Amino acid sequence: MASVAREAAAPATADSLDVSRAELYRDHQWQEPFRQLRAEAPVYRCENSAFGAYWSVSTYKPIVHVESLPELFSSSWEYGGITIADPAETVNFIMPMFIAMDRPQHTAQRRTVAPAFTPSEMVRLNESIRQRTGELLDSLPWDTTFDWVDTVSIELTTQMLATLFGFPWEDRRKLPYWSDWAGNIELVHNEETRQQRLDVLFEMAAYFKRLWEERAKAAPGPDLISMMIHSDAMSHMDQNEFMGNLILLIVGGNDTTRNTMTGMVWGLSQFPDERAKLEADPSLIPNAVSEIIRWQTPLSHMRRTATEDTELEGQKITKGDKLILWYISGNRDESVFPEADKLIVDRENARRHLAFGYGIHRCVGARLAELQITILLEEMAKRRMRVEPIADPERVAACFVNGYKKLPVRITRY
Predict the structure, then answer these.
(1) From CA 390, how far away is CA 395, in angstroms rounded?
(2) Number of domains comprising the chain
(3) Distance between CA 20 and CA 301 in Å, rounded?
(4) Among residues 70, 403, 412, which one has the least CA distance to residue 261?
(5) Signal peptide span per the entry (predicted)?
(6) Residues in contact with 192: Cβ distance below 8 Å, sequence separation at least 6, in sequence order
(7) Residue 251's closest CA among 68, 402, 123?
(8) How far from 128 is each of 156, 159, 161, 186, CA to CA, in Å?
(9) Which domain holds residue 137?
(10) Is residue 7 part of a domain?
(11) Residues in contact with 283: Cβ distance below 8 Å, sequence separation at least 6, in sequence order
């Protein structure tokens, strides 16, 4: 471990253990540096990166430890927020959101939107999600190549977002477009793309401002915008905070579920014995959903900032230090998940995954994500539908969203 630390202290040279490099995810080459970090330096100081100095936290136990101490390891935008990119670098102004707040503000705002994701709401939404999923699957071409990402993953998650927001159906494709710009922290490296991102966010703000004004004049409804505007905790948000929470809910609802739906197809194709096991026994679907989410890990990391000097796994952390919790690596920790690189549909502890986070910031929409993926697998099983990739996926070049741009597939019957 000491030798690794000395290498990091070398003059400004490329650090082979800088796992924030976008090309690692674009080229699907992130496994080996994380394997090395987990074995040699589970809490590692990277001095030189495009995002500045940071600590990589790469194994399961210290990730859970940091998440369990939100006062010591802050999520607040006031300290730096939740991604490796500092907020001021991404949009030139601050957009607070409840995931990037500490208690008590976080608690009050999260409580406002939580009723949209309760077990009773999942029961209520089940029928409409199943209907939309079935209709989409029935519209797909068989024995013809098409892009699974755009045709299925994006469309299903966009329909769900439009339902949650009460968003105009004919404009629903604006939601993934905005999400792609809002969630892409790599744009901070280029002034032109930073400005383009800002323009897109202003377009989004203007559209949602109109919806906000409409819902403010109407009686409270079940959609998320209405819940926010008619709540004590969120009704007095300024424009930036409203935008921040919208981005949280859109990126959280779009990128995570959408990329898991694609990772599901790709992952099962890489482990045909596991796919055969699932096709033979659909009762494995609920557990397989957790395992697919673990294996894919659609958001690679979250950031925390130390609020005082402390120690983590023998490393001295200084007040103000940036800690990056690599969920994508924690979910491959062999000490918790044996044969962690393998997708195992009946893995006994699949639900212990960290893809939804841990502690007070655990994903508020986790149940909904699981429901959508479960229904997709169930409806595919009813139709004995096997989705076969015909080429490698085109992946997103980003260290935050672990995602897919394209996956050409064909459907066959099993």
Answers:
(1) 15
(2) 1
(3) 10
(4) 403
(5) none
(6) none
(7) 402
(8) 12, 10, 13, 36
(9) 40-413
(10) no
(11) none
Structure tokens at 352: 């212990």
85-99 pLDDT tens trace: 987 655 455 556 666
Question: What is the pTM for the complete model shown?
Answer: 0.90
Low-confidence ranges of the chain (pLDDT < 70): 1-13, 88-100
Structure-block tokens of residue 96? 């607070």
- Whether residue 225 contacts residue 212, with contact meaning beta carbons closer than 8 Å, is answered with yes
Neighbour-count burial of 274, counting CB atoms closer than 10 A to its CB (0-12 exposed, 13-18 middle, 19+ buried):
buried
CATH of the domain at 219: 1.10.630.10
Does residue 174 lie within any of the structural domains?
yes
Q: Is residue 248 included in any domain, yes or no?
A: yes
Q: Do the strands 322-326 and 54-57 form a parallel or antiparallel pair, or are they unpaired?
A: parallel
**Residue 290 and residue 395 in contact, taking contact as beta carbons nearer than 8 Å:** no
> Omega of the bond prior to 104 within 30 degrees of 0, cis?
yes
Segment 306-344, tens digit of pLDDT: 999 999 999 999 999 999 999 999 999 999 999 999 999
* Per-residue model confidence as pLDDT tens digits over 334-383: 999 999 999 999 999 999 999 999 999 999 899 999 999 999 999 999 99
The count of other CB atoms within 10 Å of the CB of residue 79 is 20
- Please check whether residue 318 is in contact with residue 309, taking contact to mean a CB–CB distance below 8 angstroms: yes
CA angle 296, 184, 48 (to 5 degrees): 90
Residue 255 lies in a domain: yes
Cα–Cα distance measured from residue 6 to residue 343, given in angstroms and rounded to the nearest whole number? 36
Check: CB of residue 100 under 8 Å from CB of residue 391.
Answer: no
